[in-house]
C-alpha cells in the first residue's frame, strides 16, 4: 500500500534528489547505447553471459542446413511393431523417415523398408531374423 512518506517527498526541491551531480541516475542511458562498452565497463557482463562475443568461430556451410534428414532408431521401431502386429513390412519411407539408426534392441523379426540404414541397424535386424529393404547400406557407421 503506498504511503505519503516516500523518499521522493523528503528530497523535493533538492535538484538531484540525493544522486550526486547533474545527469546521474537516469536509467540505462548513462551506460552507453546498448552494446557499447563491451570492452570497457561492461566487460564483466561479457565474461559472464556472452563469453563468445569477441572472436571468430568459422562459418556454417549452406549445404549443411539442407541435410536435416529424418531418422528413426531401432527402439522406436520396436514400439511401432507392437502397435501394428499384423503388418508384414514396416515402410518407413511412407512415414517420412529417410534413415534407420541402430540405437536400441530388437527382439522381433521385422522387415523394414527404408532408404538407408547404418551398419549397426542392419546387423541388429539380421540377428533378430528380419530383413531390411534399402537402396544401399550405409558405408560408414552411425
Describe this structure in words.
This protein folds into two domains: 7-49, no CATH class; 69-133, Ribosomal Protein L15, Chain: K, domain 2, CATH 3.100.10.10. The radius of gyration is 32 Å and the shape is elongated. The chain has 142 residues and is α/β, with parallel strands linked by helices. A three-stranded parallel beta sheet has the order 1-3-5. The chain has a three-stranded parallel beta sheet with strand order 2-4-6. The chain has five helices and six strands, in the order H-H-E-H-E-H-E-E-E-H-E.
Outline the secondary-structure elements.
Layout: H1 7-10, H2 43-49, E1 71-73, H3 74-83, E2 89-91, H4 92-95, E3 99-101, E4 111-113, E5 116-117, H5 119-127, E6 131-133
Parallel strand pairs: 1-3, 2-4, 3-5, 4-6
